[in-house]
Amino acid sequence: MLALEYDPELARQAWYEMGFKKGLEEARAEMVKRLLTMNLSTKEIARVIGRTEGYVLKIAGRNKIMTVDEMRRELQRRLKRSRFAHSIGVANTAVKLAKRFGVDETKAYVAGLLHDCAREFENEELPAQAELRGIKIGEVERATPLLLHAYIGAQMIKEIYGVDDTEISQAIYRHTVGARDMTALDKIIYFADMIEPNRNYPGVEKLRALAETAELDEIMITALGESIIFVVQKNSLVHPDTVAALNFLLLQKRAGA
Fold first, then answer.
1. Model-level pTM?
2. For the purposes of burial, counting CB atoms within 10 Å of the CB of 17, is it exposed (0-12), middle (13-18) or buried (19 or more)?
3. Closest C-alpha to 245, from 192, 194, 191, 178
4. For position 196, what pLDDT does the model report?
């Protein structure tokens, strides 16, 4: 692929069409220059530019702090109807779990609401969005780009929604494949994503019943095990973080027995 040269006039026109005001030129130029270091076609660069207003605002230091109602409205504007309904379901389920396990309910709601915020991008856009933000793309993510939405979303919550909270960001980052030594909030968002009311798959009612009776670690052992079985049955790749998360909990359980 031929190297592309940065054209400030074209960049200015592109951002003008998006409604950006004077004063963000330096931030826009930095973003475009970063894009030009990637192995992208001109069309792909144009598409990324058209979908990264939050990243530009982040660079320029002009992130807007939103109320929860504003977050909901903005998320609804950006996501497909079914994805937004899923996000509301996860948020409400996360609050119920947070009440049961003594976790901050507001953080649970916001993390659940925004956990899939990066699903506004199509799968083929995710690698470029990850590279733009300096997110490392491993072998499993390269083969399954959808996984990247969790890592991108963990940054987008500040870029777009003004949420600057490391616990919420981490819970979003970990909600797809898990991680070793997850916090209670991490676990709640992971599990709420599996059992929210719009989910309909064999075994979901069993998992929902666990939410009412089992301890959080027991819930996660079952949930992670079911996730691994599901992925293996599809002949898909099992992320090492999911295995590490399950092994960590099993080792803790054995040590406490």
1. 0.81
2. exposed
3. 178
4. 98
Give the count of alpha carbons within 13 A of 36, CB side only: 13
Confidence of residue 45 (pLDDT cuts 50, 70, 90): confident
Hey, is 172 helix, strand or coil? helix
Specify the CATH number of the domain 64-257: 1.10.3210.10
Q: From 180, 179, 114, select the one nearest 149 (Cα to Cα).
A: 114
All residues at 6 or more sequence positions from 160 whose CB lies less than 8 Å from its CB, including other chains: 54, 74, 78, 117
The residue among 112, 225, 226, 119 whose CA lies nearest residue 171 is 112
Separation CA 79–CA 257 (nearest Å): 45
CA dihedral 183, 96, 86, 164 (to 10 degrees): -50
Q: What 3-state class would DSSP assign to 187?
A: helix
Residue 65 binned pLDDT confidence (cut-offs 50, 70, 90):
confident
Q: Which tokens belong to 158?
A: 């500040």
